[in-house]
Design brief:
Chain lengths: 335, 285, 391
């Protein structure tokens, strides 16, 4: 095969990946309509949107670059504290806070990436975990700045774009978070279907071969890691802004652990996994916790065990069927 | 100063007994079992119940804790762990966290969420002084038991038939099976041993670390630190890692309490960066 | 590209569309949203309060001021953002008239804005950092504040020949509150204080106690979250500090009634100042403890339980005063200055700060019959939260 022909094929496959599947459009329409369909659940929806963004961030490194992490909460927390502190001391504009949160977390990601990009999976898990725990203790120690265990108080947010005030029903919060999620999702979608994304997948599947074919492994992974960190920072900023409060909890281990669960439930490596996982995990947790506030963990645990033992095939099969049906519907409409 | 060293060693010993079971299952069977802490908790509760309800003496409750955890381990291994061996690490993580959640909520339901305690026999309480070093009797007891365990484990793995078969099975399960080594039974036994050790560690740790339903979650991080820093291919690795972390943590907190919380994590990160495969990594393909 | 922008515009546009009127409909039952950590490391706090709330409804009836009280229990597992979301949902969806519970300081703080915005009273039944009530004009507290319990300890220590104190506290809000308030007061009385803070996640107290034993103080002032107290006490004795003549003093969290039996005889001799002991000598308390233990076999009510019980009592009293009007401002107005005889003794809600004014008792842990108890031997009457009193 000649070089130009190969290039054309790669190009075509990348373009094909960028094309919108009807099920995707339906997914986003449904997400947008959710706040009209379930007006009483806006707050929960907001939490889902934030968790989904957070999971999307992990998916970028886990699903596409193959970097495992148990310390993603470090970036969530950095973003949350950066956005919270900015809102408290400088400006109450949410978008500025979002930018600062992303920048702070992205920077942290870039700085810590040399630590993470070595060793085996297990070493990576533990180093990321260690970094997050150290940040947790730091945030606790600098109580004067972060409020320590009492949490960061007194965040007052201005209206989004100067127009939409945050209301107690959480509708603005949800639509704001969902909009951010959507925009960042578009960016992620574009990035993963670019030559850069392709090179990440090459590294994930076979690092030796990738570097032999001229991919600068370290730099690419560092870039991906920083990007994912910025995404997690955005999730943290959204969390801080919509709850107008930051506690040490955002840096805690269970955030990272839950996140991993969310992504595994949804399936990594196709961007929607984190989103679907977030919806499933939160709804399940909320439903069980309403039913039994004391022992919900047991049922979640049982669900996880059964899921791994064989439930996944069933669920993922169902999702594929639905997506396939939408595809047919979409084609039918086009004709 | 020597007193604090002694305390650190005792603390490290408990970490070792809790963690070495995990390193056995993780290193030898390549299975990430985060539910390890649940077995430790089981051991702890068995010891507590044996003493409170049955009135057994402390020493008798320790083997009971080991046996109970090992028994549950072998049953679970046969029933639900087996299909997990072939799955990816992430699946194993999720599966075992699910087990932890169930164990936490189940224990809460059965035993309540309050702290559980044991009453030590009189001869294990208090402390005595040797050449100006204050020595806690219970800590000495823990060091003795754990030291004995470490030596016998090391001996068991390197010198006995069981050990050599196991190492063979780990290095290449298919060839080992071909040579007539009953690999799956070997794995089941190893898993039981690992769980039993966790149970014993849990029982020993009640006095030093406390026991409540959130135990497996609270200490999961510590087990993992010991195992990753120590490496998973030997007994000596986790042993020295546990010692090092235990002593560094205790001594560090004593000398500079202001940064006490950071020491163990910082040490872990530094060690992992300099020795990504563990302290005493064996070259592996 | 255009349809993407349309979707994006749609999301933001929807924010404008339709604003549901939030006017609460008049309902028969007054709903109380009870948010507690029922799972996680602070689950025992949640259980104590939950049990006390149920006990209140069983003993004193569910109807007050002509309205029936209906409690909706939610678990926040100790996560502040979950607490806040649950509070918002309870206010918006369930239309609760009162929010209650709050096991930890950040949880109460995170909800403060919701309470202010929705004008719904927030009854803090457990969290104990002094500043909580300042976070919103709708916060009322029925538990205690750590300075309130810690400062009398300094007075007692200074009056009883203790000159040199070493403080060991857990390194978070309440611990720092306890340490600073005690140290300031004790130094003012002429004593010397050395301090060390223990990280929150800390399984072994050996290094800190070793420092204490080398400093050879007259007394060791300790605050650790309830539950961890047991290990601390055991290691205190294991290290022989009791025999070396170091007195163990502090606010009562370390000898929490809930776990005192489990701590065992090592707790004997600890001197603590606190607002409640299950052994408090009054008819109200005897009846309360008896009823509590009957309803929850094997459990002993602790200061969390009494905070929950009094929280319910406060809501009931306020409703009686407003004759069933459950609007937030009226309830808060009725709560200010409310006073009654609680199982812990006489208490009053300070009309200025909405914090609790109560007696602080000096207690000694002793064996009473076959049980361990904190026996009160001195009373400091009507203590206000000293942090806010100084302002």
């Amino acid at each position: 095969m000649s070089a130009p022909a190969f290039e054309t094929r790669v190009r075509q496959s990348l373009y094909a990946g960028r094309r919108w599947h009807p099920a995707e459009i339906a997914f986003w329409l449904l997400a947008g309509a959710a706040c009209l369909l379930f007006p009483r659940q806006s707050l929960l929806l907001n939490e889902i949107a934030i968790l989904a963004l957070f999971a999307l961030s992990l998916d970028l490194i886990l699903g596409f670059a193959g970097i495992v992490s148990l310390g993603h909460a470090a970036f969530l927390g950095t973003g949350a504290y950066a956005a919270g502190l900015l809102a408290k001391h400088v400006t109450a504009d949410p978008l500025a806070g979002l930018g600062v949160g992303m920048a702070a977390a992205g920077l942290l990601g870039l700085v810590t990436s040399p630590l993470v990009l070595r060793g085996t999976d297990l070493t990576r898990l533990m180093i990321t975990l260690g970094v997050a725990l150290i940040l947790y203790e730091l945030a606790n120690s600098f109580g004067g700045l972060t409020g320590g265990a009492d949490g960061l108080q007194g965040i007052m947010m201005g209206p989004v774009l100067g127009l939409f005030d945050f209301d107690i029903f959480g509708r603005t919060a949800y639509l704001y978070s969902l909009s951010v999620l959507f925009v960042l999702f578009l960016v992620a979608r574009r990035v993963t279907n670019s030559p850069f994304g392709l090179s990440l997948r090459a590294i994930r599947d076979n690092p030796l071969r990738a570097s032999a074919s001229g991919v600068p492994n370290g730099k690419r992974l560092a870039a991906a890691y920083a990007l994912a960190a910025a995404y997690a920072g955005a999730a943290g900023a959204l969390l801080a802004q919509t709850t107008q409060f930051v506690s040490l909890d955002v840096l805690d281990f269970h955030r990272s652990a839950d996140l991993t669960l969310v992504l595994i439930i949804g399936g990594a490596g196709y961007l929607y996994g984190g989103l679907i996982g977030a919806v499933a995990f939160k709804l399940l947790q909320d439903a069980i916790a309403t039913f039994t506030p004391q022992y919900w963990m047991f049922w979640i645990g049982l669900f996880l065990v059964l899921f791994v033992l064989g439930g996944r095939e069933i669920i993922h099969g169902a999702i594929k069927t639905v997506a396939g049906r939408f595809a047919r519907l979409g084609k039918g409409a086009a004709r | 100063m020597l007193t604090i060293l002694f305390d650190g060693i005792a603390y490290g010993m408990v970490l070792f007994v809790l963690g070495c079971g995990l390193s056995v299952t993780m290193g030898l069977m390549n299975f990430v079992n985060l539910a390890h802490g649940a077995f430790a908790m089981l051991g702890g509760y068995v010891a507590v119940l044996a003493m409170q309800r049955l009135g057994l003496p402390f020493l008798a409750s320790l083997p009971l804790a080991f046996l109970a955890a090992a028994l549950v381990g072998i049953v679970l291994e046969r029933l639900i762990y087996r299909p997990m061996y072939a799955k990816s690490h992430l699946d194993q993580v999720m599966f075992s966290i699910g087990l932890v959640f169930m164990a936490v909520a189940g224990t809460d339901w059965l035993m309540g969420s309050t702290q559980q305690f044991i009453r030590l026999p009189v001869w294990l309480q208090g402390r005595f002084e040797v050449a100006g070093i204050g020595i806690g009797r219970y800590r000495l007891f823990v060091i003795a038991i754990c030291g004995l365990l470490a030596v016998s484990l090391q001996w068991g793995f390197t010198r006995t038939r069981f050990g050599s078969r196991l190492r063979a099975a780990v290095d290449d399960a298919r060839v080992a099976r071909g040579l007539g080594i009953p690999v799956s039974r070997l794995f089941a036994l190893t898993f039981a041993l690992g769980s039993g050790l966790a149970g014993l560690g849990g029982a020993l740790g009640v006095e030093l670390m406390g026991l409540d339903p959130s135990f497996p979650l609270k200490f999961m991080i510590y087990f993992l630190i010991v195992v990753t820093v120590g490496g998973t291919s030997s007994i000596t690795g986790p042993f020295f890692a546990a010692m090092l972390l235990g002593v560094a943590d205790v001594v560090g907190k004593y000398l500079v309490p202001q940064v006490g919380a950071f020491i163990i994590y910082a040490l872990m990160v530094v060690l992992l960066i300099t020795r990504p495969h563990g302290l005493f990594a064996r070259a592996r393909a | 590209m255009t349809h993407r922008r349309t979707i994006l515009g749609g999301f933001l546009g929807l924010a404008l569309a339709g604003s549901v009127s939030g006017a609460a409909l008049a309902q028969e039952a007054v709903k109380i949203g009870l948010i507690l950590p029922m799972t996680g490391p602070f689950a025992s706090t949640g259980k104590q309060i939950d049990a006390a709330v149920k006990l209140f409804l069983a003993r004193e009836g569910a109807t007050h001021g002509g309205r029936k009280l209906e409690v909706i229990l939610k678990d926040d597992a100790g996560n502040a953002d979950t607490t806040r979301r649950l509070a918002q949902e309870l206010v918006v969806n369930d239309k609760v008239s009162v929010l209650a519970g709050f096991g930890l300081t950040p949880l109460a703080m995170a909800t403060a804005q919701v309470a202010t915005q929705a004008k719904v009273p927030e009854i803090v039944m457990a969290a104990a950092t002094a500043t909580i009530t300042e976070a919103s004009p709708f916060i009322v507290r029925t538990s205690f504040t750590l300075p309130q319990a810690s400062e009398p300890m300094a007075d007692w220590a200074a009056a009883n020949g203790i000159k040199k104190v070493f403080t060991v506290v857990t390194d978070y809000g309440p611990g720092i509150d306890a340490e600073t308030s005690f140290a300031a007061k004790f130094k003012a009385a002429g004593g010397t204080v050395e301090s060390v803070r223990v990280p929150l996640r800390n399984p072994d107290f050996a290094p800190f106690l070793q420092r204490v034993s080398e400093a050879k103080p007259d007394a060791l002032f300790v605050f650790v979250p309830s539950g961890i107290g047991a290990q601390f006490m055991k290691q205190f004795v294991e290290r022989g500090l009791d025999k070396a003549g170091v007195k163990l003093i502090g606010p009562g969290d370390v000898v929490d009634d809930d776990i005192l039996e489990g701590i065992g005889d090592v707790a004997i001799g600890a001197i603590t100042t606190h607002h409640y002991s299950a052994k408090h000598d009054s008819a109200e308390n005897k009846a309360f403890v008896e009823a509590f233990q009957k309803a929850n076999p094997g459990m002993r009510p602790n200061f969390m339980a009494v905070g929950g019980y009094d929280g319910m009592k406060l809501i009931a009293k306020a409703l009686e005063a407003t004759k069933g009007d459950a609007s937030g401002e009226k309830l808060i107005a009725a709560m200010k200055g409310a006073s009654w005889e609680s199982p812990r003794g006489p208490i009053k809600i300070d009309p200025d700060t909405r914090d609790i004014i109560q007696n602080i008792y000096v207690r000694k842990t002793e064996k009473v019959g076959s049980e361990l108890h904190n026996v009160e031997f001195a009373t400091i009457k009507d203590v206000k939260d000293p942090v806010k009193a100084r302002k």
